[in-house]
Amino acid sequence: MTQKFFDNLLAQSILRLIPRLVLPNHVTMLRFILIPPIAYLLLIDQMLWSFVLFVVAALTDAIDGAMARTRNQITEWGEFFDPLADKFLVGVVVMVLVTKYISVFVAGLIVGIELLLIIVALHLKLTTQKRIKAQAMGKVKMATQVLALILLFVYILSSLPLFLISATWCFYLAIAFAVVSVFIYRSI
Per-residue pLDDT tens for 133-161? Predict the structure, then answer.
């Protein structure tokens, strides 16, 4: 129900600005293309620009999914590569920022669970030939990770400790959602 609400909201607003010749898979590819510049900007300590590009890349996740569902353009390629793009985007930013500002352990846990999710999804795809669709818990996990990263960026840009504390707790919550996602994937 909530997903349908947001899909309709995006369809009535942002998606009207996107020509029909632009496919959801094109938007997913844009997310992949944005990852190296984001990583580069993070590594040269250009936090404001890396934050702006990260938010744009994160928004493409909502846009490509809503496009695929509302325009009836769901593809097998998109079902596999959309979550992979999410994992790469989050993984790169987590490895740079969470390692530096929160802890190597938390960053390793987040990236490790994401790698496990990729392996489980790939294994299911190869062994069952089932179409692996996004699960609600995975979407909640991604939204929580993005929120945590936004809070961390705001902390870095503002130096207000409340944002660091909030980001840290959001990451712990995202880890919990990720663990649940692993068990949901294993039960498919």
Answer: 667 788 889 999 999 999 999 999 999 99
Residue 184 is predicted with a pLDDT of 75
The HSE-up count of residue 131 (CA atoms within 13 Å, CB side) is 8
In 10 A of CB 119, how many CB atoms? 12
87 vs 66: CA distance, rounded Å:
19
Cα three-residue angle 22-23-26, rounded to 5 degrees? 85
Percent above pLDDT 70 for the chain: 94
In this structure, what CATH number is given to the domain that contains residue 44?
1.20.120.1760
Residues 108, 17: Cα–Cα separation, whole Å: 39
**In which domain, by residue range, is 7 found?**
2-187
DSSP string across 107-173: HHHHHHHHHHHHHHHHHHHHHH----PPPHHHHHHHHHHHHHHHHHHHHHHH--HHHHHHHHHHHHH
Over 80: is that where the pLDDT of 76 sits?
Answer: yes
Residue 121's pLDDT is 77
Q: Name the residue type at position 154.
A: V
Q: What is the mean pLDDT of the chain?
A: 90
For position 188, what pLDDT does the model report? 53
Q: How many domains does the chain have?
A: 1
Q: Beta-carbon neighbour count of residue 126 at 10 Å?
A: 8
Q: Which residues contact 10 (CB under 8 A, 6 or more apart)?
A: 62, 63, 66, 70
